[in-house]
């Protein structure tokens, strides 16, 4: 059997931006992950092959400071490692890992306890604390706490073999398990945008749309491999069960949903709040452009990283038709 994927970026107008710092810095961050011993030999090889430095170079392509790109590399590498590890944890073990991680992030000056799981040391990485303003750091800490809470909730669903009952319910959790808010917080590092502007409904609406495009875009492109291994934390799978649809019909439904969100996002990009000065408006434009870069980068990297499409199965070359992998029972 085959599966026809929707061409979700057929009308996406934002092109790829790329950081000039990738070649100089991404390997250093990858080597840091390797030094922790958190991944086995084969898993480290897979991690390297995914080329998260390339991903970071796109989604933080507007960073002009090498230190900012270094912090972004660290976060992206950390999140992908933690996501893969937590996917295999029970709720109890996820709760323990989350507690260790948050404590290490908050108490980064303190050495970790001998024998502790290396996620503690991984979250002790210091560079974020040296370049972020207090406001950005506070936002990041709060967002990351929400992310870890959502990871536990996902593990609880997994333990109970529960599939979220509706797309809305699923997205409420998925926005957090993707850690996208924390990633957006880093976009603010180069700027000094007042809180009242960031709280404006036009900005928060655009942020929400960006989160949904990132999370659902990933779900659409990763669906085949995730359904094959029996994962259920995926929008396509939720819609299959919510509406009693086949995998193809659910994929088509999510493709239409995604394209509608693209149109809404593009409209929101043209409706930014009044910022009081040209300088501040330029900063806000750069921030929301960073959100668009994240959507672009998520899509581009998902297609070419090898994580979801093996060599020789480029969906762009097959008119979006891919072999439907044999799946575990959902």
From TrEMBL:
Print the keywords alphabetically.
Answer: Lyase, Magnesium, Metal-binding
Could you say which cofactors this protein requires? Mg(2+)
- For this UniProt entry, which segments traverse the membrane? none
What GO molecular function terms would the record report? metal ion binding; terpene synthase activity
Q: Which InterPro entries match?
A: Isoprenoid_synthase_dom_sf, Terpene_cyclase-like_2
The organism sits in which domain of life?
Eukaryota
Instruction: Return the EC number.
Output: 4.2.3.-
Is Magnesium set as a keyword in this record? Answer: yes
| Biological process terms in GO annotation | isoprenoid biosynthetic process
Entry similarity comment: Belongs to the terpene synthase family.
Instruction: State what protein this is by name.
Output: Terpene synthase
Could you tell me which species this protein originates from? Answer: Mycena albidolilacea
């Amino acid at each position: 059997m085959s599966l026809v994927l929707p061409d979700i970026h057929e009308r996406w107008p934002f092109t790829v931006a790329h950081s000039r710092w990738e070649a100089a810095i991404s390997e250093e961050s990858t080597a840091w992950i390797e030094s922790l011993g958190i991944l086995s030999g084969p898993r480290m090889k897979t991690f390297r092959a995914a080329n998260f430095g390339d991903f970071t170079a796109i989604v933080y392509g507007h960073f002009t400071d090498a230190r900012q790109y270094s912090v972004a590399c660290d976060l992206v590498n950390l999140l992908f490692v933690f996501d893969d590890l937590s996917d295999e944890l029970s709720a109890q073990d996820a709760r323990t890992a989350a507690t260790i991680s948050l404590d290490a992030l908050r108490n980064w000056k303190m050495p970790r306890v001998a024998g502790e799981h290396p996620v503690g040391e991984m979250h002790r990485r210091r560079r974020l604390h040296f370049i972020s303003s207090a406001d950005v750091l506070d936002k990041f800490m709060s967002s990351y706490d929400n992310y870890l809470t959502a990871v536990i909730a996902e593990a609880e669903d997994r333990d109970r073999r529960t599939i979220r009952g509706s797309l809305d319910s699923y997205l409420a959790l998925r926005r957090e398990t993707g850690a996208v808010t924390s990633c957006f917080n880093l976009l603010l590092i180069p700027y000094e945008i007042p809180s009242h502007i960031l709280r404006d409904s036009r900005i928060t609406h655009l942020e929400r749309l960006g989160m949904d495009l990132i999370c659902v875009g990933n779900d659409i492109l990763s669906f085949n491999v995730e359904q094959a291994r029996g994962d259920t934390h995926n929008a396509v799978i939720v819609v299959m069960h919510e509406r009693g649809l086949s995998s193809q019909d659910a994929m088509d439904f999510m493709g239409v949903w995604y394209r509608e969100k693209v149109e809404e996002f593009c409209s929101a990009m043209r409706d930014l709040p009044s910022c009081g000065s040209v300088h501040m408006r330029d900063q806000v434009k750069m921030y929301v452009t960073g959100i668009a870069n994240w959507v672009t980068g998520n899509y581009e990297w998902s297609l070419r990283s090898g994580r979801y499409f093996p060599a020789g199965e480029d969906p762009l070359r097959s008119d979006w038709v891919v072999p439907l992998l044999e799946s575990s029972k959902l």
